[in-house]
Amino acid sequence: MTALALDLICDDQKEVLIGHLRFRLLHACPVDDVADRVQCPSIMDRMTANGYASMREYLHACAAADLNGSSLTLVVFDADRPVGVARLKRRGGEGMETATWLHHDYQGCGINAICKTVQWHLASAMGMPLFASVFVGNHRSIAAMRKRWPDARPVVREERTPHGKPKLMLVWTMRQAPAGGHDLTEAQRLGLDLMLASEPVMLLATNAPLDETPAR
Q1: Tens place of pLDDT per residue across the chain (216 aa)
Q2: 154 lies in which domain range?
Q3: In the chain, how many domains are there?
Q4: Based on CB atoms within 10 Å of each CB, which residue in 4, 41, 80, 150 is the most buried?
Q5: Which CATH number covers residue 153?
């Protein structure tokens, strides 16, 4: 591997550079600053429906879940600006579930496709199936799922918010890499693997299911 390729693995495996984006572990970031810069009305419409009053509250819940090994949360940066969050959380004993939140200024420009490729790689590295659970009214996310996994067929499932309110979700099980995503280089795959290796979610990947923080 060349020195240039190794430069893509940054800061003792706390982040990985993929194209123009940096994927950095949430616990290596100033959580409140990230939350304030990512929060926007389109995110809060869904966040409040899940029982969270703010992006700060959600990200602190993510940080706690990351610590106990039930999730892995990455902050997505474009240069020095945090533009979103790409997360995996354990779905009982079934596998890992995706959650992606992007500031509205960065939706529809290909970042979600890169996030899905990263999430797919990380779940595969843990030997876990990948799932996605999307609220039936979230038409943008449903369209994104159909674009990235056109052959996957979702099932309808009733789930509950953190406050116990029922909601109907479409649940996908992904058995292949996302279509039209980003092809990771050898250095990028290695960087993600090294970043994952010491995280609680990886160390506990083969253990019994843990309590989870709802993703959507």
Answers
A1: 444 444 555 556 799 999 899 999 999 999 999 999 998 887 887 777 677 888 999 999 999 999 999 999 999 999 899 999 999 999 877 899 999 999 989 988 889 999 999 999 999 999 999 999 888 888 888 998 999 999 999 999 888 776 677 888 999 999 889 987 678 999 999 999 999 988 999 876 644 343 344 444
A2: 3-201
A3: 1
A4: 150
A5: 3.40.630.30
